[in-house]
Amino acid sequence: MYKVTKRMTFCYGHRLMDYQGKCRVPHGHNGVVEIELQADRLDHRGMVYDFSEIKETIKAWLDRELDHRMLLRADDPLVPVLRTMGEPCLVMEENPTAEAIARLIYEFTKSQGFPLTRVRLWETETSYATYDGER
C-alpha cells in the first residue's frame, strides 16, 4: 500500500457553544490540515497522486470556504450579527470543533474523488483531530 500526505494551511476563527472552557469565546487558529491518500498501485507517472493536483483542488476550496472565516454553530447568536455586518462565516450544524472541521474537509475531499484515507487537522502546534471516515 502506498500513501502520500499533502499539508496545507488556513486561518479560521470559531467558538464553542455549551462549553465552559476558554474556547467559549471567539478566537482564532492557524490551522494545518494533512490530507492522506492511498493506492494499491502507482499510476503511470509512478505516483499515488500528484501533490500539485491535490493542492489545486483542496487548497482552493479551503481558501474559498474556510480561510479567514468564523466557523460557528447554527444557533450561535453571533451568526446574525456577523451576517448583518457582511462578515464571512461558515455556519455548521454542530460545534465547529477540530473534529467536526476535520470531518468537513474529509467529506469535501472524498466528494472530489480522491483516494482518501484520512484528514488530520492541527488546531495548534500540539493538538490535532483526525477523521478517517465512517467504518
What does this structure look like?
By secondary structure, the chain is α/β, with parallel strands linked by helices. It has a single domain (2-131), classed as Tetrahydropterin Synthase, Chain A (2-Layer Sandwich), CATH 3.30.479.10. It contains 3 helices and 6 strands. The chain has helices at 51-65, 78-85, 98-111, and strands at 2-14, 27-39, 69-73, 89-92, 116-122, 128-131. It has a 6-stranded mixed beta sheet, sandwiched between helices. Helix 2 links the parallel strand 3 (69-73) and strand 4. The longest helix has 15 residues, at 51-65. It is elongated. The model has no long low-confidence stretch (mean pLDDT 97).
Please tell me the overall pLDDT.
Answer: 97
Summarize the biggest pleated sheet: 6 strands, mixed
| Tally of alpha and pi helices | 3
In the CATH hierarchy, the third-tier topology is known as Tetrahydropterin Synthase, Chain A
At the fourth level of CATH, the homologous superfamily is 6-pyruvoyl tetrahydropterin synthase/QueD
Q: How does CATH name the architecture? A: 2-Layer Sandwich
- At the first level of CATH, the class is Alpha Beta
Strand order of the largest sheet: 4-3-1-2-5-6
Q: Helix content range of the residues, please?
A: 25-40%
- N-to-C SSE string, H for helix and E for strand: EEHEHEHEE
**Estimated radius of gyration:** 16 Å
Domain module tally: 1
Structural class: alpha/beta
Give the overall form.
Answer: elongated
**Number of β-strand runs:** 6
- Which percent range describes the beta-strand content? 25-35%
Low-confidence stretches: none
Q: What is the straight-line distance between the termini?
A: 19 Å
